[in-house]
Each structure stands twice: as structure tokens, then as C-alpha cells.
Amino acid sequence: MPRKKAKRGSIALGFVLTVGILSLISFVLLESNPGVTSVQVPDKLPAYSGFLQRYAPTDALQVSFDNLTAIRAINQSVISNQPFFELDQPHVSMNAGAIGWRLTVGLSTPNATVTIVTLGSGPFGNLTASLTGAGSSIPTDRVGNVTVYAAAGTLSGEVQAYWLAIIPGDRALIFSPGANDAFQAVEHVIDVYRGTLPSILNRIDVDRMLYAVNGPSGHLALGIQNFAGSVQTGNATLISVDADHTSAFISYVVRFPDANEASAQVGAVKAVYISSHQFFQFDELVKAVEVQPVSQLKVAVGLVG
Description:
Helix content: 25-40%
Number of domains: 2
Strand content: 25-35%
Structural class: alpha+beta
Largest sheet: 13 strands, mixed
């Protein structure tokens, strides 16, 4: 009889231990696999504006924006002060330290990339004087009321043809390496600035993605990929980077055809952005949020492209 009592006691203890272990495993799984918070996108979105509205065209394949001034204010070492733009004739050389904002627009038609940067008053004044001075013989063309210059420069140690333009109102330089495609790409961007071509912020699908990260302004970096990115079942991806003095916050917003498909693909988003600790569904959008030490800000900004 004592043996039977001991056996029943062992069974009871084993049951308690099993339940405790299973509860602990369930808790760990819940903590490591957070749920998804549902958020309703309003019918009427805020009217977004800013640098993207002025220069990024509606048909851009990829857009990458960096607020270099704000990034340097948090961590100077994130942006190396190396040469980023150099012309041979007229001779112009600029380091990354001259840039305030940088916007890169990738186009499929024409197949070219355009970079738009804002400059400090000194570097912009020197560039303007070099291009428009009395001794300048650089070939030019026109896009509306904007002069476009054909110049030769150096890119990665090799001589490269450029088309470029300057926008005094923004102290902005627009440039694209190449020949005919580069001219068409610069023209495309200038047409957005002139208001003759719609900007990417005229797209309701892009505005809905921007709503999920509180709009296009105020971020250290912002990227829009109008194609299936890391989550191959998605239609587009938006990445935003924000930071304070201790942490870098990276938000990934993936767009799907509709809300039902977004719900079905939450697992795919979690599998790709495995380091994220928060997930949200904004109708057809799934958002993942990752938090890293601010020491990883350079890596975070690099994700935007």
C-alpha cells in the first residue's frame, strides 16, 4: 500500500511538473511570437507633401531618402565625409559633408537613377558659379524653365558623363550618370518639380503605406520599393528609420493585394523580419517594427538603400 501511495504521489507530481513546463513553453512562445495589432486606415488620409512630393515621380520603381543633417546630429560617424560628386570641366568637387538631404530615384523607363541632394549655401554657390560663370562652355539643354547641363565627371575613379540641373529655391543639385537615358531621367524628375508630372505622393497606395509610419516627414531615412521585396508575396515594401540617442527604430511596411491576403501573409512577414518585436495590420498592409541599439544606426540607414 505505501508503494501505491508513493506511485500516486509521483504521478501527481509529474502531472504538475508537466503542466508547469507546458505553461512555461506556451509563455515563451507567446512572447517570442507576438500577436498582430489591427489598425484601421481612415478613408481620408492626411495631405502629404515635402521633398518626395517635389521630386519623386509617380512611376518610380524605388525611392530612397536620407536626412543626412539629422543623422549626423545623432551620430557623426554614420556618414563618412568622402567625395560624392566631382566634375572635371568645370572642375567641381564635393564631399558628403556638404549634403543636407539626399533623395535617390530609380526608374525603369528610362532605365536610370537620379540623385537629388540639397547643399549648404557655400557649396551650392560655388557649384552655381562654376556652371553659369562667364568662362563656362559646358553644353546645355532646357526642360521648361530649368537649364540642364551636360558634363563629364569622375565616378569610382572612372570618367563618367553626367546630366545635371540646379534648383536655386531648394539649393538642390539633380544629377544622373549616363547619356540619353540620364537626360530623360533628369527631365522626368524636373517635370515633377515643375508640376507637369504627378509625384509619388499622388498615389493612394503609397500614401496608405506612409500613413502606417506617420507620413513621409521627420524620418532619418525612408525607402519605397514598388516591387516584391524581401517578402516575395508582397506587392511593395516601405522602410522607415527613426532614432533617439539610445535606440534605432526600423519599420517595415509590406503591401498586399487586400486585407484578407495581408492576414494570410502575416506569418511570411514574421519569418522575414524575425528580429522585429511588434506587428501591426493596417488593412492590406502588414507592419513590422524592429528596435536596435543606436550604435547600429549606420546599418539601419543602409537598409533603405
